[in-house]
Backbone:
C-alpha cells in the first residue's frame, strides 16, 4: 500500500484551485497535469509503498506525535525547476509554519524508529497546483507566478493530521483516509 501523511484543506481551497485552472489553463501551451481539487492537500511526509502488515505500527507512530491546533494560510507561489524547465507549480504556506515543521520533524523521528527513513531534504510546505508534462518556454510563467503572489487565500485552523492511502488509477490517484490524529489543547508540540 502507498501511504503519505498530510493535512486536509478547507473546501474553499478546492474551489480556488478550480477557479485558477479555469482562468489559466487555456493560456498555456505546455501540457499540465493539474491537481484534482478533491485531492488537494498539504503533504507532510510521503511514506511510499509499505506492506499492509506495517500499518498498525505506522498508526501507533503517528499517535505518538502530539500537537496543539495551529493556523495556516496559503500564500504566494512559485515553481520547482530542473534542467532549465519548470516541473511543478506550487502555492506556499504562511502562518504557524514553525509549528508545522516541528510536527514534520516529530513524524520523521517516530517513523524512523519503525524503519521508515527520515526525509533528507528540508521540509518546504507547499500545495502542488500542477506538474508540467511538456514544457513550453513561451508560456506566461512570470505572469502566472505574479498572479499567485497577489492571490489571497482564507486562513484555517489545522486540528488534524491524516494518514492516507494513495491508490494510483488511470484517471489519477484515489485517496482513502486510514488514520487520523487530532491535536488538542493538552497536547504540546514536542521540542517546544
Residues:
Amino acid at each position: 500500500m502507498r501511504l503519505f501523511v498530510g493535512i486536509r484543506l478547507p473546501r474553499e481551497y478546492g474551489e480556488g484551485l478550480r477557479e485558477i485552472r479555469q482562468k489559466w489553463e487555456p493560456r498555456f501551451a505546455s501540457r499540465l497535469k493539474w491537481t484534482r481539487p478533491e485531492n488537494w492537500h498539504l503533504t507532510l511526509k510521503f511514506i511510499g509503498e509499505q506492506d499492509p502488515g506495517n500499518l498498525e505500527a505506522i498508526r501507533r507512530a503517528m499517535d505518538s506525535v502530539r500537537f496543539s491546533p495551529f493556523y495556516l494560510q496559503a500564500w504566494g507561489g512559485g515553481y520547482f525547476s530542473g534542467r532549465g524547465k519548470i516541473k511543478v507549480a506550487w502555492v506556499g504556506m504562511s502562518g504557524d509554519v514553525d509549528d508545522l515543521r516541528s510536527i514534520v520533524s516529530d513524524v520523521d523521528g517516530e517513523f524512523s524508529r519503525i524503519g521508515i527513513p527520515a526525509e533528507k531534504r528540508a521540509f518546504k510546505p507547499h500545495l502542488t497546483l500542477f506538474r508540467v508534462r511538456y514544457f513550453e518556454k513561451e508560456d506566461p510563467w512570470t505572469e502566472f507566478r505574479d498572479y499567485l503572489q497577489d492571490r489571497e487565500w482564507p486562513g484555517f485552523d489545522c486540528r488534524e493530521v491524516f494518514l492516507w492511502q494513495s491508490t494510483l488509477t488511470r484517471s489519477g490517484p484515489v485517496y482513502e483516509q486510514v488514520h487520523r490524529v487530532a491535536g488538542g489543547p493538552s497536547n504540546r508540540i514536542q521540542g517546544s
